Amino acid sequence: MMLIRYLSQIGRYFLMLKEIFNKQTKWPVMRNLIFKEIDDLIIDSLGIVCFISFFVGGVVAIQTALNLTNPLIPKYLIGFATRQSVILEFAPTFISVIMAGKMGSFITSSIGTMRVTEQIDALEVMGVNSLNYLVFPKIIALLLYPFVIGISMFLGIFGGWLAGVYGGFTTSAAFIDGAQMEFIPFHIVYAFIKTLIFAMLLATIPSFHGYYMKGGALEVGKASTVSFVWTSVSIILFNYILTQLLLGS
Amino acid sequence: MIEVKNLEKSFGDSKVLKGVSTVFETGKTNLIIGQSGSGKTVLLKSLLGIHIPDSGTIEFDGRVYADLDPDEKRELRTEIGMVFQGSALFDSMTVEENVAFPLKMFTNDNRAKIKERVDFVLERVNLVDAHRKLPSEISGGMQKRVAIARAIVNNPKYLFCDEPNSGLDPNTSTLIDNLIQEITKEYNITTVINTHDMNSVMEIGENIVFLKKGLKAWQGTKEEIFRTDNKDIVKFVYSSNLFKKVREAYLREG
Are the beta carbons of B85 and A118 separated by less than 8 Å? Predict the structure, then answer.
């Protein structure tokens, strides 16, 4: 019974995706909506992303340094480990899980409130494709999400360098050597492919939970929680699948 | 004119509309009344296309809604204005932006023309100094007037109102009722109002449809409602002593 319910929800999600791209809203209106979403979703997230990336990058460097107890292991590995952790997993995946909470709950609660207060019904009655009007600009705005992750990567490594060097764990030259060592450009491509897929999940799963919610203010809160859980689960699951597909072979 | 024929709608095992047939006339304020759970809201939402009926037809001036293709349905919806119970104003937009919304979406008018039309309808609903305010910054009565302005800004052929007086004081309720009736006459719109408010029935009830348990139990005008012997409607409308006395006075004085 539960399985049927989940399958039916997944089917409904894909039908929603199809509807998002039907009957486009007029471009002058859509353009303004896209700018508003860029402001709400991308610009407003930069502060928290920068803060977390900088300090977690620092912690990764310190933890690596503290675990390198064998004197035969060179200190440049601190830079190497920080770069690999930040580029491959921390920036694309864990920032996205954090964004599932920050952006996702914002999207679900704003669309859910529109549902509860009949604003979505008002759009439909006017003849507006409400899914296109509400969700499409979020998808387009989140095409800029890789830039956020790019900033996160830079600040994560920078935080690692600062903590490593000024914490007395390594020298600047050793850290930079390590950070440049055996660099595989495809890892960046892999990270940005993941980021784009996660951006799509971040835009659509919370929208789905907000759009199809029923009830009142309490249910808006519940929908935000459920949306965070499912967005996080989807990100972790897709992370595994994409890693297997792109790096596993 | 909107013609409803044998409309039926169920939710699970519960049959909410059991074959409702009626006509909502153009240029008149058509009221749907009935107790909670009688099917009023389901009937209104079926007319709006929010609920899809199980059987029966809805005709908008000869156009059968179910037979229209998706583009024609969207086209028809641009001819509809709706005033929701809670106003349903877009809370991120100012009053002016809310009213301009249908024009921006469905016309190619330039900014000046849109501004002119928005100013005109806001003045028509007696709101001249709230343009830049957000819905949260104005009273419930003002929100209803903005909702009416938004509903009529695109010159709709059909105007639907769901409980337009709910949460308003008697004075503001009467103002809203009169405004809707004036607009209906002025623009020759087919107006359908879903209401519980007996004051509205007495004020603007030009064609009243009374629903009981999903069936049309009575239909008539506000004058006929005084003279009817239909037990269901008498029980519903004259449940308050005030209206009983009004009816007695009306019948006494002929």
Answer: yes
